[in-house]
Amino acid sequence: MIRNAHEIDFQIFGEEMQYVEIELDPQEAVVAEAGSFMMMDEGIQMDTIFGDGSDKNNGFFGKVLGAGKRLLTGESLFMTAFQNVVTGKKKVSFASPYPGKIISIDLNRFNHKFICQKDAFLCAAKGVSVGIEFSKKIGRGFFGGEGFIMQKLEGDGMAFVHAGGTTAVKELAPGEKLKVDTGCIIGFDASVDYDIQFVGGIRNTLFGGEGMVFATLTGPGTVYIQSLPFSRLASRVFAAAPQGGGKDKGEGSILGGLGNLLDGDNRF
């Protein structure tokens, strides 16, 4: 098989705040989302490109269409390519944007296609196509929330996605189902069927605190789950922050911080 993507070597460092170091041979390149760059050796050239730099969308209008689809996932029209333009091996590193794990995805292992959350993609070998996976079921569109528009990574190279908190990997047998909070999905291979299911019950819906729906993933295939979606982390931070420019609710009270110890932290 003729390889379209560059064949890269890599190493992941760290525990909870990870970064991936990619080693590039001469003329090899990697593409990344804006804001993920950490550091690079002298001799690597950085270039802003339209779309993802793959050959999937040939011609100007094909590139416009491919880049336009990225806008639907909240990403930029442009990506950044890092190419080794000198002789000898050079290294470039990319960091995860929040605490969690970086996961390496060998697209050859996933039959050349992997579907992931729209904000999970970090970087990939140049030649990997980064697009969107539209849902064909109307229920996902109205109620899927974070899981409605998914990204799809296609090609024959290495790609890297990031996840919040701790990562769980589930191997689903044919027909085996797994129910997951929509925000906790990192990604899965194309053989996994994905749908939305209502939680059910008035009390569960109104008072359960888990939302109206969850995702149902049906095997066969591999599923990656994250314990701390960024949206959940952000909502907790927002809830803990002083509202309206005022002080923390414990500040200025007679008991102050001691009061928080006595009545518990009820801000969440």
Task: Summarize it.
Helix content is 16%, strand content 39%. It is of the alpha+beta class and 268 residues long.
Give keywords.
268 residues; 6-stranded antiparallel sheet; single chain; alpha+beta
Give a verbal description of the structure.
- The chain has 268 residues and is α+β, with helices and mostly antiparallel strands.
- The protein has 5 helices and 19 strands.
- A hairpin with a 5-residue loop joins strand 1 and strand 2 (19-24).
- The longest helix is centred in the N-terminal third of the chain and has 13 residues, at 60-72.
Cα distance, first to last residue? Answer: 53 Å
* Helix vs. strand class: alpha+beta
Ranges where pLDDT stays below 50 over 5 or more residues in a row are: 140-147, 201-210, 261-265
What is the chain-wise order of helices and strands?
Answer: EEEEEHEEEEEEHEEEEEEHEEHH
Largest sheet: 6 strands, antiparallel
What's the overall geometry?
A: globular
What percent of residues are in strands? Answer: 35-45%
Radius of gyration: 21 Å
Helical content class:
10-25%
What's the number of helices?
5
If you average the pLDDT, what whole number results? Answer: 77
What strand order characterises the main sheet?
5-6-3-10-13-8
Kindly state the number of beta strands: 19
